[in-house]
Amino acid sequence: MMKEITLYDVLGVLAPGTVITVGLVTLYPELTTIITRKEFTIGDFGLIVLVSYVAGNLVAAVGHFIEMPLWKIRGGSPTDRARIDSSGILSKREQDAVQDKLRQLKMIGDDETIAKLKSNDWWSIARRIYTYVEARGVTRRIDLFNAQYGMNRGIAAGFFVLLLIMLFRSGISSWRIEGVLAACVGLSLYRMNRFSRYYATELFRQFLIAP
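User: That's the sequence. What structure does it adopt?
Assistant: Structure tokens below.
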């Protein structure tokens, strides 16, 4: 059975794929032979969408490599940092409430504290928390923030790839264009970080109010 197209597919895959596809067509005009024909068919449009989807999935791998050092520098992803008092993602009262509810649901032991859990253990618990709220049908906003996070991560990766291609083709002679691409990478990473914080905050707050 064919997988249903989700919001993440549209935002997190197709949008970054479109960035890289349009960028490559701009750098290599010979690739525009399809869209410059007088008769542009639905099949041609479908091919462009398919190419963008494939490119988006490939660029997603680059996005993973970009986010790894970023989260390492920042002391972990927002989901991981949410359990730390100084993270600013959840208040101390919310952290205590999450910890108490996890104990009530037997997801952690009565003598365990979320701040002292290992990152791998906390990651597994965060996945169980998502499953808990998903079963209660309250993940709409969480999924929206996740899709926006994935989209901006992919867009950052797409602009980063285009920046590398420009450097390979022209060196620093096209520094103005390369500067614009670098700025786009930075802005996308800023948006990625912003929506990842929204995702973490919404995930744990929905967990607290879920019946």
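The CA atoms of residues 37 and 66 lie 37 Å apart.
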